[in-house]
Specification:
Chain lengths: 294, 103
């Protein structure tokens, strides 16, 4: 439980962090809240030669609404800060998920940017951001800022589209036009709290909505099931253009694991995990539908 | 926060408050500590500093918590003597004492 030796530097500004990354990127790890990285270092599953601490870059912390209505969440915003942010909590699936992530001590330190940069295949935040259609803002000293669509961000277990010299600075959520309902449901592994199967759902009518109208915007994202979080496009295709009634939901969720190599471990074998993914998808969709037509 | 997932160097320049700050001396326990003593909130004592500091953080935000609030707040604190029931009671009694105006 003692990490291997490492050097430590604390960046006082975003520019300084980018400079350090450009110089040391391949040997260095950025540390923000450290709630995933430090346990891995103590187990020596991670042995970075150098930590660049970005934890005090307050420019990267906080939630703001952009002039066009999009929500911009600074990468260093903690779970606790998000839970206390009324604008973010208006997104019902965030209200479902964030107060349940880990425990209060971890929520006080853990950051939303850290959660997706770490890319644990059973973490909740990747599924939430996939369902919301987030855009990830990253920057480097060599190439400046670039945007990565969340659908292109996760490349595998603990692997992302971030380059070694890049810093994740902000997460932007689209401004919905129309009526939307959303929900997150997960079966958690009791000891760790990580998802055995977690499903995030956003459904909407981009025009004016009434109970009889079909939904035309459907995003369903799954965590804990495959070796990386993914969009269940088979489920989305069945639901798009329907009224998301119980029979359609029941038919759609059969496709929740289509094309995915479902993970198997001591907590949940492949059959059980696949079945639970379907159950969580059904519950999330039923709740999202109720919220849409409330 | 958990001291095991914060490097000391990360805390450089910060104020760190630990359980040692609660009682000025052994004869004058903090009301929450006194409640733990009175209501069997500890057995082996290993988890007690974390229980006290986590409970104080909760009471700072929620002075009159429900049992559910307390259990949610203690989610990350394990007691392997499994004394949770008396820990929750101790915190309720401590919270009530802390709501009393200072004499």
């Amino acid at each position: 439980m003692i990490p291997a030796a490492f050097a430590y530097e604390r960046a006082a500004s975003v520019d300084e962090a980018l400079g350090l990354l450009a110089e040391r990127g391949l040997d260095a790890k950025l540390i923000a809240g450290g709630q995933s990285l430090l346990p891995l270092m103590k187990l020596r599953l991670a042995r970075p030669e150098r930590l660049i601490d970005i934890g005090r870059l307050d420019d990267l912390r906080g939630v703001r609404v952009l002039p066009d209505g999009r929500l911009a969440i600074g990468a260093l915003t903690t779970y606790s800060q998000l839970v206390q942010d009324a604008t973010a909590m208006r997104l019902a699936l965030l209200g479902d998920a964030l107060p349940q992530i880990a425990d209060v001590q971890v929520r006080n330190r853990g950051t939303i940017g850290g959660a997706i940069a770490h890319a644990d295949p059973a973490a909740d935040v990747p599924a939430l951001l996939l369902a919301l259609g987030a855009e990830i803002v990253v920057t480097s000293s060599a190439r400046g800022e670039r945007l990565i669509a969340i659908d292109d961000f996760f490349l595998g277990p603990f692997a992302t589209a971030l380059e070694p010299d890049e810093l994740l600075t902000e997460i932007r959520l689209p401004a919905p036009s129309g009526s939307y309902g959303s929900a997150y449901r997960r079966l958690a592994q009791q000891a760790s709290g990580f998802a055995i199967a977690g499903v995030a759902v956003v459904i909407g009518q981009t025009g004016s909505a009434s109970e009889g109208d079909p939904v035309d915007d459907v995003r369903v994202a799954v965590t804990g099931v495959g070796d990386q979080p993914y969009r269940a496009t088979g489920v989305e295709d069945v639901l798009r253009g329907t009224k998301v009634d119980p029979a359609t939901i029941a038919a759609a969720v059969a496709a929740i694991c289509d094309g995915i190599t479902v993970q198997s471990d001591i907590h949940a074998d492949r059959t059980y995990r696949s079945a639970m993914a379907g159950v969580m998808a059904r519950r999330a969709l039923e709740t999202a539908r109720e919220r849409l037509f409330e | 926060m958990k001291s095991c997932t914060v490097l000391a160097v990360q805390a450089d320049g910060s104020t760190v408050r630990t359980v040692e700050d609660l009682a000025p001396d052994p004869e004058h326990l903090h009301p929450l500590q006194a409640a733990f003593v009175e209501h069997h909130g500890l057995q082996c004592g290993y988890c007690t500093p974390g229980m006290l500091m986590t409970a104080l953080d909760l009471l700072d935000r929620v002075p009159d918590p429900t049992d559910g609030d307390i259990r949610d707040a203690l989610h990350g604190n394990y007691c392997r003597c499994t004394g949770y029931q008396s820990i929750v009671e101790s915190i309720q009694v401590g919270a009530a004492a802390m709501r009393e105006p200072a004499p």
